[in-house]
Write a structure and sequence with these properties.
single chain; four-stranded antiparallel beta sheet
Length: about 110
């Protein structure tokens, strides 16, 4: 199992969700986050609001998948998030040791679905 963490532009969320749904990946967590990358110190315009260097508003999308679905999920997120501009984001793939569905007690891959 793998745990995928993607940091994306807020206005690309609908495209990322649509791309994941095309791959039949429907389970995800989305959080508002602040951060910066190489664009530090560069002002960007986001929805007619200028955000100066420092920390920029981003979204974190988290998805847990079986080993069979890792690259479909990564590709879908990249497709949905890519604009070709600075600040498109990053995708991290981490090993997921275990998963437990609290309601049923299921563990492993069966707890993901």
């Amino acid at each position: 199992m793998k745990y995928i963490v993607a940091i994306i532009q807020p206005d690309r969320l609908d495209e990322v969700i649509a791309a994941l749904e095309e791959e039949e990946i429907n389970l995800m967590t989305v959080s508002d986050v602040m951060g910066r990358g190489r664009q530090k110190g560069v002002a960007e315009v986001y929805r007619s609001h200028v955000e100066k260097g420092g920390l920029l508003h981003k979204l974190k999308v988290e998805v847990a998948v079986s080993n069979n679905n890792v690259w479909q999920a990564v590709d879908a997120i990249a497709r949905g998030a890519r604009t070709g501009n600075i600040g498109d984001g990053k995708i991290f793939v981490l090993d997921l040791m275990e998963c437990l569905r609290i309601r049923t007690g299921e563990t492993g891959v069966s707890a993901l679905a």
